[in-house]
Amino acid sequence: MTNHPHASVDAPGALAALAAAEPAALEETLHEVCSSPRWAAEVAAARPWSDRTALLAANAAAMAALTTADLADAMAGHARIGKPKTGDATSEREQAGIRGVDQALLDELDSANAAYEAKFGHVFLICATGRTAGTMLDALRERYPNTPAAEAEIVRGELRKINDIRLNRLLDETN
């Protein structure tokens, strides 16, 4: 179950349109949610979804099935925390917590990101929606001592949360 405020409200029009989309159009839409081709294929294969909860369950199942390489594909679609992709409304919205932050904190975040990336070989990934720059920095520092295997599972969970938010937004915007 999701914490989404409209989780109990089905969006039959949006959901039906998504489920009925031509494969190429559905793939394009799903790639906007998550850049892993395997994730998109798994979610698409679960259609038709009976309701919002079923679509989110398809996300959870697809995330659980991703290999290390698939996780890398999924992370490739995410900007470094503290540096949202310019002109990318999703990236800017999700990282709104860094707006107006003083440069010293941004510099700390940048330094911690660089150390994390050197250790793990990928960007630090966290569901940034609703988080401040300070809480993201704290989480980055807290997760840095993790083993690569432990961190991969945390990343998988964070990606699932991000995808849930993006799928819910997709249904709400097209409803």
Explain what this protein looks like in three dimensions.
This protein is mainly α and 175 residues long. It is built from nine helices and no strands. The longest helix has 26 residues, at 148-173. The model is unreliable at 1-11 (pLDDT under 50). Its EC number is 4.1.1.97.
Shape: globular
What's the tally of helices?
9
What is the C-alpha radius of gyration, as a whole number of Å? 17 Å
Written as H for each helix and E for each strand, in order along the chain, the element string is: HHHHHHHHH
- Contiguous low-pLDDT stretches (5 residues minimum) are 1-11
Query: How much strand content do the residues show?
Result: under 5%
Strand runs, count: 0
Class inferred from helices and paired strands:
mainly alpha
Distance between the termini: 20 Å
Can you give the helix content as a percent range? 55-70%
Average pLDDT level:
88
> Could you describe the largest sheet, including whether it forms a barrel?
none
Key terms for this structure?
single chain, 9 helices, mainly alpha, OHCU_decarboxylase, 175 residues
Question: Short summary of the structure?
Answer:
By secondary structure, this protein is mainly α. It contains 9 helices and no strands.
Topology:
Layout: H1 12-20, H2 23-33, H3 37-45, H4 52-65, H5 68-75, H6 89-94, H7 103-120, H8 133-143, H9 148-173
Helix pairs in contact: 2-3, 3-4, 4-9, 5-9, 7-8
Organism: Kitasatospora viridis
Domain Oxo-4-hydroxy-4-carboxy-5-ureidoimidazoline decarboxylase: 21-168
Protein name: 2-oxo-4-hydroxy-4-carboxy-5-ureidoimidazoline decarboxylase
